[in-house]
Structures are given as C-alpha cells and as structure tokens.
UniProtKB/TrEMBL annotation:
This is HTH araC/xylS-type domain-containing protein. The keyword Transcription applies. It comes from Kutzneria albida DSM 43870. Residues 221-323 form the HTH araC/xylS-type domain. The keyword Transcription applies. Keywords: DNA-binding, Transcription, Transcription regulation. It comes from the Bacteria.
Amino acid sequence: MPARSGLLPVEHLDFTTSDPEAAQAKFDELYLRNRLHRPDTGSFSMRLRRYVVGGLCMDQLRLRGSLSLDGDPFRDLVFGFLRGGRWSGATRREELRGRAGLAFAHPMQDAAVYTGLDLDCCALTLPADAVRRAAAEQFGHDRVRFVAMAPISSDMRDCWRAAAEFAHQQLRTPPSTLREPLVHTQVVHLLAAVALAAFPNTTMTADYLRGPGWVAPAGLRRAVAFIDAHADQPLTLSGIAAAARVGPRALQYAFRRHHNTTPMGYLRRVRLDRAHQDLLAAVRTGADSVAEIARRWGFANPARFAALYRESYGRPPHGDLVHEPL
C-alpha cells in the first residue's frame, strides 16, 4: 500500500448576527467592499456558514429580512445558487433576478447592486488557477473572463447546480471526502469545467481554436509512465502533459487513439487497480473499509466506485476486502 498524502485541513466558520452593520463588515471581509442598505426596518438576522478546503470555498447564507448591497467588483471567482427567498443583482450591463432554482456568476469586472429577501443561498468560490487550467486544457489558452451573470441555458443551469450541490454536500458532511487530495483535485476540476460550460465567458467567443498537435510515441510513453508512477498523488491533465513534454489537447487525442480513453480515464483505471490491490491486501484488523480505500484513491461516491469495480472485476468490492469492519 503506498504511503498516503496528508489529509487537507477543513476550515469552518459559523457567523450569526442580528446587526446589519456587523453583516456589512463580514461581507466586506469575505467578498467585496460594499455599502449596505435596509429597505425596511423590520426584523433582521443572518447566519453565514463557510467551509474551506484547499482553495475551494463554499458558503451557505441564510437571511431573515431584507437587505441591499451596493458592492464593488468581486475579488474572486464566485458562483451562487438560490435555494429559497428572492435575489436580484444588477450591473451596468445586465440585471438578473429570481427565486429558488436561480444560479448566477458574480461579476468581477463591474460594480453591482444586490438585493435579497429571506434568502437561503449558497456561494462557491473557485481557485482562479484551476479555472485557467481547465480553459487551457479544453481550449488551448488560459485567458478567460466571465462576462455575464446568468447561465447560458436552463440545462446548463441545472448542470451547474448539480455539481455545486454535490461539492457542498461533500464539504459540509463530516468527515469531508474533499480532505482527500485525490478527491479534492477531481472535484475542483469538475467544478471549473462545468463553470466554463455553464456561464458566459471569453472562451465561448474565441475566434480561433488551435489544432491539438501531434504526440510522438515517446511522449505518450512518458505520460503513461508518469501516471503509473504518480497515481497516488493529485494529478491534472496539464501536469501530466507537462511531464510528457506535450500539450494537453494533443495528449488527449493521443490517448483516445492509442488507449481508447483519455489521460484522466487511464488514471482512473490505474487508481481502480490500486484500490483493488489494497482491498486484497487489507489486514484483518479492520483498519480500512471499502469507503476509506475508495476515498484514498480518489473515488468520492461509494456507489459509483462499486459500479466501476464490479464492471472491471465482476464482483462487488466488499467481496475482495479481507475484513470489512462492522
């Protein structure tokens, strides 16, 4: 069994107030410089719960009452979705408003006015380098800017909500699977890729998309060897391509042609095989369960892991575990 990478720490903030000025100060600290206004003098309370792991941040905001924020552009890439209440956002370019089910990207280039009434809202902050890396892998360049708040379609709105809800559940349910470095890397990449597909951004209007290029057999062998040697570490397509000294898109095409899968698909096969070996070698002390071994190798969803395992080995994973703890 390979030596495990250390678990990532999870930071947790639970902030509650009935003072609008304290709410304004917290918004200023966490998101953006702002001026808070109360449209009415009724009761007010706010609870903000924040979970942070490895640069990925998820906030859950619950507001009773109403508020209006006149805010500067956001400092980070923040995307939100509404579970309840009413929300609106307006910049000099556009206005977006809605109720439960709404999804939105907070603008980084424009100041905005936000209003909310009895909100139940989640916000997700993505590492900017992860988004740039996903853009480079998909489109051949890492210059990306989100240009509108609303998703491009209702289908992509639902796709984003599903991905964000999954990440939120993984973050707030202890012990968080996102503490596992392999799981964390995959989930962050998934969120970045879905955000690029769901929200209007400059990759959608690029005039020219370069061809993927060609990978010599030696480059493909370097990529395979790198994956085999580092499967127990957080890997990205860009990192694998850099180790093979080729471009990410060219490497994708080469893997599809010669291995009938993608580099990340090949990595998943290798990790599944390592999980299989760990299950067979598990000691009788009960130190490991199927779920723990699956998480160690980057499989956050136990049902998905079981399905992949059965597909590959013809039996469920618990059948190969020497001792499954009660």
